[in-house]
Amino acid sequence: MRSINYQPQFYLDLRRWRWRQAFCLFLGTALPVVVQAAEPPESPLNPTTPASSVDDGDRKKSWTLAPITVSGSREGYTATTSSSATKTDTPLAEVPQSVQVVTRSMIKEQDMHTLGDVLVNVSGVRPTRPEEALFTQPIVRGFPAEIYMNGLPAFGGTAASIDPTSLVGTERVEVLKGPTSALYGGGIGAPLGGLINVVSKRPEAEPSATVSLRTGSFSTVNPSLDVNTPIGENIAARLSADYQENDSWIDHVNGHHWSVQPSIAFQLSPDTELLLRGHYEERSQLEYSGLPAAQALSGQIDRNAFPGATNGQPQSTISNRTTTAELKHEINDDTRLTLTAQYYEGKTRDYGSFVYPELLGASPATPTVYPIFKLYLPSNIRENTLDANLGTNIDALGGRHELLVGVNHDTTHFYSAVSGADLIGELDLANPSYGLSYGATPELLVSQTNRYQTTALYVQDQATYGRFHLLGSLRLSQLELEQKEQGVDATYHRVTPRVGITYDLTDSVAIYAAYSTGFRGAFNFNGRETPKPELSRNYEAGMKLAFTDLGLSGTLAVFEQTRRNVATPDPDPNYSILGYSVQSGEQRARGVEADMVWEPIPALSLLANYAYTQAEVTEDNSIPVGDGLPRVPRHSGRFAARYRILDGVAKGLGFGAGITALSSRELTLPNTVSAPGYALLDAQASYDFDRYTVSVSAVNLAGRKVFETYQYLGSPLVLPTQPRSAYLTLTARF
């Protein structure tokens, strides 16, 4: 902990004025002139004062700043509270659910730049690769999970809708394990396996600016900036942005992305705050479709081969535009109202070329020479979401209750289409001689026009009776599903409860047990009957540790989760050949998880996680019972450490390393081939001096040549893991 005295005031005011002037010029606004500084406001916009501890009598109306002494400490890897699990600011030790938080400090020190990088620090989670985001979702505890941004959905059919292109504007990532339908939903329903909530940075009272340039392997160039400033009285603004272009370890694959995330907060009154956020991004890359698994794993083909056209194939693009408004009003010391509205618009244009052995494979005489097909997959999404909730604290029935009641409405319009798979030539993947031409964009053959509308009412009570903490949530949902081309027009009603109890064994150890349910619409279901919603349920028990004096915190959990009404091929071959399905499948995941963080001293942070997950088919028409679910390893875990030198001649140096390991994973259902397990080593180092930081990081430090599972049109495919790579980042703070 250190104390910073902002004196002499003239120089601080001059520096603040310059940053505010630059930011206002960027926004095209006039800069207010401050003649005399006043006390800093104690408001939700001021990061030095938690919103929950602000007293109405102490609130100030001015945003101008005066000479003060601020005491602070380095943010660590440990998070003590979460707002995602209950939509209230609740200590994690009291939440009867496994909730893991990856803090900004961890994101920065491990040099993470994608959501997949972040999620390896959480047990039981299998993230998507950016290259496959159009075709799949992240997995939590064996089942599909959804990505939310600041507690709100963006469709949810695939990760492409809201998987952040950049983490430059991310404050932390919170992972809720198990179904979360009691409080969340929208688009096609609610998460079945878990929820990954990406929490954005927000405007703050203190002006600051960070500019970075990252470069390294595969011609990566990645400038970024994060600028925060107060603008006039009771207004603060922030702008986070970055751009990246890069090649790849895979032949001919290259891409770029950009992200712009503006936000502005208005303190409308001492009790009312309005926060406006924008998240606008685009990524573009030559589409990669994966390698045939059996031959890639046996070394028969070039692991870095590009299985497609290298002449004239347009880059695939994903464009996401999200605009959010959040109004918070404190009615009194115990009651608060929150209104949130979001508009999301997404557009993808997927131009692919690929091998498809299920349609036409290699000849036995030339087993590595594959026919190459081309494909075009466009889609458009528009989603409007509104959530309103009222929370209050009361003493009743001998205990302390935190009540929450809310309504939610979501309307999503989804359009997608697919062309025919046109043959464009052959390619020897063992010794590729590139030159195939993509040609004209193929004509669209099949389209899908869907509309999903969800309206829900939810209530929740968090009650404390001495050492007991009780949680009960209930959500009544109405889901209207329209699939124009299939003639489907159905309405579903579902009540999804969640109950849990936590008991404090000591001030540092608690045990808990919980039950929760999930409810989700059938996404693009094609069958002879009206689709039913997919359902899930989760039983969970565990222990929570919070030894603040030792710096040790974590969660141990055991669980059983079941997913029902899973789509399986129609048993009638006359319909299955047309791609028809029936919803008669059931899947189950059982396991044990451990997530621990130990920070015994400010200089040292240790993270360890482990998951044993047995995810398998329990009922199906055609898939053998007992087959393992794709992409889910039986064993997985990570250990990471960071050491910082805080004094002496080497002050400012920091070193870190981590190892991520997992066992084999199945690629498809039914199981035909699996990708072997592996262990990968990463490392980081940095040096802070004055207002600057120089950092280096390494990926796959041992240079392991292994493969990841890969999703593309349901074929058994793999992706070569990123080889040994290194990056240098230069950062300046103002």
UniProtKB/TrEMBL annotation:
Signal peptide: 1-37
Gene3D superfamilies found in the cross-reference section: TonB-dependent receptor, beta-barrel domain, TonB-dependent receptor, plug domain
Protein name as annotated: Iron complex outermembrane recepter protein
Keywords, ordered alphabetically: Cell outer membrane, Ion transport, Iron, Iron transport, Membrane, Receptor, Signal, TonB box, Transmembrane, Transmembrane beta strand, Transport
Localization in the cell: Cell outer membrane
Entry GO MF terms: siderophore uptake transmembrane transporter activity; signaling receptor activity
BP GO annotations: siderophore transport
Gene Ontology CC terms, in alphabetical order: cell outer membrane
Record keyword Kinase present: no
PROSITE patterns: TONB_DEPENDENT_REC_3
Domain of life (superkingdom): Bacteria
Record-linked NCBIfam families: TonB-siderophor (TIGR01783)
Record membrane topology: Multi-pass membrane protein
InterPro entries: Beta-barrel_TonB, Beta-barrel_TonB_sf, Plug_dom, Plug_dom_sf, TonB-dep_rcpt-like, TonB_sidphr_rcpt
Family from the record: Belongs to the TonB-dependent receptor family.
Main location: membrane
Chain residue ranges for the region called Disordered: 39-59
